[in-house]
Amino acid sequence: MNILILGATGRVGSHILKYALSENHHVTVLVRDPHKIQVENRNLTVMEGNALIESDIQNAMAGMDIVISALGTDGTTTLSDSMPYIIKGMGDEGIKRLITIGTGGILNSRTELGKLRYQSNESKRKTTRAAEDHHRAYELLEDSRLDWTIVCPTYLPDGEHRGSYRTERDFLPENGKMISVPDTAEFAYIQIEDDSYIKSRAGIAY
Predict the structure, then answer these.
(1) At residue 126, what are phi and psi to the nearest 5 degrees?
(2) Which DSSP letter does residue 182 get?
(3) For residues 2 and 24, what is the distance between their CA atoms, to the nearest angstrom?
(4) Is 31 helix (H, G, I), strand (E, B) or coil?
(5) CA 77, 78, 82, 87: dihedral to nearest 10 degrees?
(6) Which residues in the chain come in under a pLDDT of 70?
(7) What is the pLDDT of residue 125?
(8) Which residues make Cβ contacts (< 8 Å) with residue 5, sequence separation at least 6?
(9) Domains plus CATH for the chain?
């Protein structure tokens, strides 16, 4: 399978890259700084570019079967600004499957009907800026024709791989407090073969 990974130099993205290469997929990564990719593999293609430049996204999409985005907000609007380019690029190339990393803040609130967690009293965050950017990206995906899945972790320490965790459609599993980076990446990666969460958000926690 030909997989494009965006955000492959980040915490979650770098683990997704390792999982994909370990199963001999042909992986292309689009990165601003190729030197940050420390992996060498004959199935890996490193493309220098920026997810905020439409032509870079378009070029990276060529020949792909699936796209995985682990782009972060970094205090900016990177997610919502890049999403229209991702959606358009995938449409132009006839790619249907998109897996992205979101945040538990955009899952449905259990305590306040009709609100997302970041908008409700469930949120303990002092700022909602990152969640708002994730929310805008989520709304763009809802309006798209893609087969998308947004993996939504709660508190995300580096931690260790356990291989055992709970997931729930559109909600954070009850009393979920945290999930490690490696386990989040593993769950996101296995969605390439799993259609259980197509067109939905997947809450994940221990």
Answers:
(1) -80, -25
(2) H
(3) 10
(4) strand
(5) -80
(6) none
(7) 75
(8) 13, 16, 17, 20, 27, 28, 29, 30, 67, 68, 69, 70
(9) 2-205 (3.40.50.720)
Give the angle subtended at the CA of 138 by the CAs of 132 and 142, to the nearest 5°.
Answer: 145
Ramachandran angles phi, psi of 189, nearest 5°? -65, -45
Residue corresponding to tokens 């791989």: 161
Q: What is the pLDDT of residues 146-183, one digit of tens each?
A: 999 999 999 999 999 999 999 999 999 999 999 999 99
Q: What is the pLDDT of residue 124?
A: 76
**The residue type at 42:** R
Which pair of structure tokens corresponds to residue 152?
A: 């939504």
DSSP string, 133-174: HHHHHHHHHHTS-SEEEEEEESS-------S--EEEESSPPT
- Number of residues assigned to the chain: 206
**What pLDDT is attached to residue 204?**
98
The two structure tokens encoding residue 141: 């995906």
Q: Which residues pair with 67 in a beta bridge?
A: 4, 98
- Say how far apart CA 70 and CA 6 lie, in whole Å: 6
Closest alpha carbon to 155 in 196, 183, 136: 183
Instruction: Name 115's Cβ contacts closer than 8 Å, sequence gap at least 6.
Output: 108, 109
